[in-house]
Amino acid sequence: MYEKVLSGLEDKVTKERNFIKTFFQFSVGQWIAAFISFITTPIITWLIIPAEFGKASMFTLAFNLLLTIALLGVDQSFVRMFYERPEDDRRNLFWESLLPSLTVGFVIFIVIGFFWKELSFILFGDYTHFLPVFLLGITVLVGVVERFATLTVRMKKRGIAFSALRIVNGITNAAFTILYALFVSRTFYAVIVGLFFSHIASVLLAIYFERDLWFGKLKIDFGSINAIIKYGLPFVPAFLITWLFQSIDRLALRNYCDFTEIGLYSAAFKVVAVMNLIQAGFTTFWTPVSFESYEKEPESAGIFEKTSLFIAAAIFVFGMLIIVFKDAIFLLLESSYRQAAGISAFLILMPIMYTVSEVTVVGINFKKKTHWHMLIAAVSGGFNIFGNILLVPLYGARGAALSTGLSYIIFFCMRTFISKSLYKVDYHLKKFFSATFVFVVVAFINTFTGNTVWQILSAVCGLIFVLVIYNNEVRYMFNLVMGELRRIVKLRE
Known about the structure:
Elements: H1 2-47, H2 50-71, H3 74-82, H4 90-114, H5 116-124, H6 130-155, H7 159-183, H8 188-209, H9 211-214, H10 222-232, H11 235-256, H12 259-296, H13 302-330, H14 344-347, H15 349-360, H16 362-366, H17 371-395, H18 397-422, H19 429-448, H20 452-469, H21 471-492
């Protein structure tokens, strides 16, 4: 009896250790990429003025929209069906998923070619920018290939390889942006060129990592392609609404303000992007783990309950720390960008709500009720549209940040409650909403109160509240990580 209990405890510790190891392998690249972004963002702000930064943000906005359309949602089909297919059939699944997206990508490229002048005016304010519009079309095609190339690395749970992709992407983006600004021109072209070459570098490396999947004998089943598109298409309207939900802030700023205000908002996003990279690291790791866990043990919900607690504790603490030190962080930027510090607090709610909801949304994905994503995006997006129309004319970028942050709380609530109705999991929502309330109060003080002492004091108090709310989880994670570090040190001695 004692031996069975001991064996069970050892298995539990081993699983937790492997969980942390896999998470670390997937996340380390995001952390390094976040560090690269943190170091290079101040340099870029000293080279490129806010108005030019704002124009680059409009390019990114258009790229994300067109990439969403080109993908047709079949990237979601690929993820969902990956573990359903035997290993020797996954090359066929890969190409059956990639071909429809590539076809739509080429159509988009041709359409862009016909209407490049109109796009130039909409995005950049005049009709003369052929190069960035041309790069937009090419980058969409590259982005399609990159999405599937990196997905294969993710789904095979090759954490170190995926981290290498993120690091190469971050270094390439920073290097080409800075070099172009220094030696060619200090315009938004520099940011676009950096983005383009970072995608190229990621694609080439990802193809190299999974070259066996890319090259070899194929048997394309058009019936399978139809099934893949049928599963993925419902995601497209939802993703388009989600794009509008995530982009209405900058669209409202484009309509009511100038490129300078968009640039300041984008600079605040750049700092928050450190959290977005951590969010991406977790999501990248979590997607294959959650689907595989469900396929093996559909009735076992323990991993989802614990993960929701631990990721909420970690990301709330990290978010509070950014607010505590935000003024010091923004001092690194060029002086014309420093007022962006007051914009950042509510934007931090985006990665917090999105990251935790990636755990709590699993019921919708497991049960293949993908139509719910459209309703969720429509309701939260509608709230964000109304909020931006109401607040941006009054408060500019601060109003956009407030509306966006609050709409992400609605996004989380809808994802979570609908998912719980389909797949019962105890997500300990009392803890989560207590921490959310505290965070909103702190964000409001740091956005609309000009007194720096009050801002820092509120953020420190908020951090203490979060640590108290998630006391057990924080202590457990700390002890687990420290134990793992001590084990690694002992192995090397």
